[in-house]
Amino acid sequence: MIQWNADLARRLQCREEEKKGLGPIIKRLMNLDRKARGEGFLSLESELPSIDDPLLAVGLRLVMEGVSGEALEEILATYLLIEEKAGWPFLKACVTIEGILALSESDDPALMARKLLPYFGADKALAALEELEKDEAPAGKER
Amino acid sequence: MIEAIAEAASSFFDASKVSRQKKDALFELATRICALSADARSSEKAIEKAAEVEHRKILKTGLGILTTGADPEAFDRAFAQAKPKDGADDPGSEFEWLFVRAGLRGIAADEHYSVVMRRMTAFLGSEYYDKAEDWLSDRAKRRRAKGESLVFPGELPDVIRILAMDKRNLERVLRAAGHEIAAAALAGCPQESMDLARPLYGKIGAAALEDDAARMRVHLSSDEIEQAQAALLEVLRNLDERGELHLGPEDELVADPAYVAAITKAILGVDQTIIKKAFRQAEGALVATAMQGMEPEAHDHILGALSNKETKRILDAIDDADPLPKRAVQGAGKLLAEKLFEAAAAVKAPKATLERLAAVRDWGS
Q: I need a surface site. Which of A1, A15, A21, A60 has the fewest CB within 10 A?
């Protein structure tokens, strides 16, 4: 559920060039989601060494541990709220958290993408989706 | 946007202002609160006793509120009202207040101590994650022996066994159901079911699942556990209908259409007097299971042949029946076809009727 407020909108503001960096982040989250769905959540352990974002690493470890729902959401939000982030780092962290929550619910990667695309902004989301689907197509679609 | 972030976006707290020494002290405080969280589950007086001897002002205040049995929302309100005014400008005090509130709110929500620990140490930053992990792992190792089993009649243990043949299936179902429902459903299953679920969560998550199931076994009513089991099976059915489970042909929950057509046609071809005679000897659960693999017109034909009392017996059994894998449904259908065949042969039913029943009886042989 999208729950915007003025303070949040202000914090999420960043340059258009920076927003382009969301594409690779979303793709990575979708790949992690695909792995969890296909090989089980504990298989994500093998991905941890290559993850340099502490928030993503902690989130995946919590999910592997079985933390879910409201508790997971609130714990991840706490990690975000203890730092005075704004702009691109804040946007990136919000997308990461939203992706981890989608992954914990075993969302289909395509559904996950649709949850994350609004962070591009209403005017850019459709183009970003097309871009994402273009890149995803050769990998094959999930049933 | 994540609700928790949206709600709290105006109350950011820069933890970089809090010293490492203070954070280390708070980590020790978290371990105390988590140990208390575990103790509070086995002793009603644990919080009261801890409140009496506590010297730390913020924690003492919070524990005092918990002794009133406040739920998480009531706790939040009371704790906010009791917030000390002196030290409002001290980042350390403010931080400690938020930190303690997170932990005690977890206790008020009856969360497992591992979740309480994760809630609290999130305030300390990701660099404390491993420290919390070590503490929780050590605690998980020292857990008490497994609790007694409380097994409810039903198909769930069989279903779990089938799902566990491919761990992804069991994991998808348990995780889609959520921790609460999974733990409550497993509370009414034999230890074997729990042993199949545990490896899917890692040692800390497994300890939480098992501890919570043991607690629910004591604190939930039979009806609540049965409802959780029904909810888990409903989740399973939904996932299966969406094609999200990796089931083999014999384990699918959707019956083979050719079999459904065959048994439906066979049932519709049997005179209702024969059905009445044959079903008198059949158990309600067997009929209910077999009926999962028939079209509705076959249900009507069967129920139309029975007395009100018999109909009620069968309908009650259907209400109690959980969705079963194809092999269980077809197995029951074959047994039922055998009973019908014997009753039909005894009254010299038409050859075509007997052949259709025999085909179902011998299905897959």
A: A1
The domains found in chain B, sorted by start residue, are 3-141 (no CATH), 156-241 (1.10.220), 257-361 (1.10.220.30)
> Mean pLDDT across the stretch B54-71?
94
Residues whose CB is less than 8 angstroms from the CB of residue B267 and which lie 6 or more positions away in sequence, other chains included: B275, B294, B298, B301, B302, B340
Q: A94–B122: do the CB atoms touch at under 8 Å?
A: no
Residue B236 contacts residue B159 (beta carbons within 8 Å): yes
Nearest to B156 by CA among B233, B48, B62: B233
Through-space distance between the first and last CA atoms of chain B, rounded to whole angstroms: 56
Q: Which of A43, A78, A98 to mutate to test the interface with B (most CBs of B within 10 A)?
A: A78
Cα B92 to Cα A88: distance, rounded to the nearest angstrom: 28
pLDDT in tens, A125-136: 788 888 877 776
Contact in structure between B150 and B187 (CB atoms under 8 Å): yes
DSSP 8-state assignment for residue B322:
P
In DSSP notation, B141-166 reads HTPPPP----PPSSSHHHHHHHHTTS
Residues of chain B found within 8 Å of residue A117, distances taken between Cβ atoms: none
- Taking an 8 Å cut-off on Cβ atoms, the answer to whether B118 and A5 are in contact is no
Burial class (CB in 10 A: 0-12, 13-18, 19+), B308: exposed
Nearest to B179 among A39, A68, A74 (CB): A68
State the ipTM, two decimals.
Answer: 0.89
